[in-house]
């Protein structure tokens, strides 16, 4: 099928797909608030059965159920090749409600956009993928390969229970390649995909100086937990934003020349970024003459996400705080280990005399980067070129984080993330939406991608 | 009158004084919450009239009214000498209510202690002073000198309107010496008095990096306001707690040898201090081999009272904060100027490249230290020896702050602070109380002090 044929078939199936998605979006599946889990799972299972898949609802290892789905290759398909889709049925909390222009769980179409919590992240993607499967099943010879799904219900709370399921059901989820949950178009309407993800060591540093808050006049002789924390942090990164913790960069896998080339060609506008966030200072990469694209993809970070000590209200309170806390988010690249990062920071603090500062790991995940030359990666990119009007963009890894490493480690497969979002879809924010045009093209891309999947992998 | 005679007369007057104080304490005069101001002023005026004083309620210069009181010297008194008492009729907010064992505005006597918000700070002192005056007026010949009061209603919110009143009514409040509002007994039952007070530059440092909070993944190239603030603060004080801001120590008046001697003899126990606050680290004066007493009285401080940036709740939120704030309390000694301190910090930040950090003055007050050899200072100390069982302690200045400099500057008089509190009276906290024994002795001390005041100043 060529582009026009595919899009024509997708358009025929679109009204039904949109109705199905709207129904799915009516479930307020907020994992952080334990809402609507069983009924959403039931609906997901129903959608899969409707398009001819079989399911297993896995719920014996804790947390919200993980839905497994399987669609067998058709009579003319290649049953020796299997693709796995990773999705999640849970969504972010909708709060603050007053900032929504429509009801977050009453999906509403306005000007070609479908508004609802979860439309972009990631209910729209699951329905797009199931619709692509339905379209392929209507073709003579059926599905071109085996298709599996792993649909979890705790992505929005950090996938705390995913690893045990993947380890226990490794055989069940075994596949040759994986399509990850998200993706979409950038400011220039280019579909933006990634073949990997950064890791994370999200740490909390706590300094306790005393059992009670004190009157600040005792600052003449009592040590101050807030000053201690400030001094400690200042030894970890210098004013040039260089991370000074020994061992922090241990094990980092150098990107290949090809990966570097791809990244150097990623679209990026310093002006647009500065305008988007209202930045008051130049990018930190300017001083070090580093390409911000390279920093985004290949460099680990150490970001203070929060500082908290003593009195933070209006005006003056003369207190010498008993304690001080910092939240530190280290984004990691392949080869770095969150536990090792934590140890390095602990050793650093000890070496600098800050034995009164404790470090707690809040979230630790390794990075994952697929082989950029894997035929699957090339195939997803090539088929995107068939459907999308603009040249697609594929980055070796995202700047963000997700549980991709667990898939890579357990299933040993290449992963590409692509989806039906766009830069303005307000993921995690009020007025989340997808554009129906992107939804349509996303279905079409999956139709084409799945059609040639087995052949691409057999090359 | 000797000690026994004085205490006997005080005891006669005590029941009436306690009733008067309880009535005064029933007004919930919380200046921060604009509560009960007019009715409290009316009651203060009534108390003054009852013991033969005349009053003016000054309210033409903004803020809560300032009550002026005047008691003329008796027929045998010395009308050429005038003493001024500084008090305030406002109190701290009583919150948190659930931590009170009694109602904060329903004064309750339990085991010789009178519990109520304001009992120690400073309603008890005003009633003690008025009771001493009443006792002296019952003696043949009446009051031994002229007595004035300045009773303000905004001390607990930083006396923001006091200076204009003192400047405009300089003549009205003119006196030869001043008794300040507070004081009380230490852990060893010694009455602890001060002849001065530290100043303050309470500053807020703000770094704004962007107009909106960002996803922390952009930390690879976007500068971070929290890191900027941490780095800036770390240049202002080193790990040895030395203040590194150029000009910070400008103009400091060296304490005299006598003042140093007195301070070196102040009671202080490092163990007791560590136990009181539950300190986790040694005093900062230990490393520099400074006497903590000397640091408390003679050294300026730079204390972080608060740090605030980004996400400070439970767990992880992956945010790159748009801004970061620090509250900085610099306690100043005589000769230092809060405005100069602020300028020095601004210059320091500029010199170190932190032009993106702004400094705001929240509270600026100069220090004040009376001539330690002034006959008035000696007289207050000597008369304390008459009444109190234990050797009194008089420090050149307190570690805390108050509007004493305004009095010193406008009225050019020596000031000593003493009162009816004790170390356990929980000023500003729930279950504030005074011990009735301290109240009684405080009245007696004022009777003896006033009796010999004119003669002491004529020496």
Automatic annotation (TrEMBL), chains A, B:
Gene Ontology BP terms: lysine biosynthetic process via diaminopimelate; proteolysis
GO cellular component: cytosol
Coiled-coil regions listed: none
Keyword terms: Hydrolase, Metal-binding, Protease
Record carries keyword Ion transport: no
InterPro entries reported for this sequence: Cyt/Met_Dipeptidase (IPR051458), Peptidase_M20 (IPR002933), Peptidase_M20_dimer (IPR011650)
Domain of life: Bacteria
Single Gene Ontology MF annotation: succinyl-diaminopimelate desuccinylase activity
Family matches, as SUPFAM superfamilies: Zn-dependent exopeptidases
Domain Peptidase M20 dimerisation: from-to ranges: 196-353
Protein name per its UniProtKB record: Peptidase M20 dimerisation domain-containing protein
Organism per entry: Brevibacillus brevis (strain 47 / JCM 6285 / NBRC 100599)
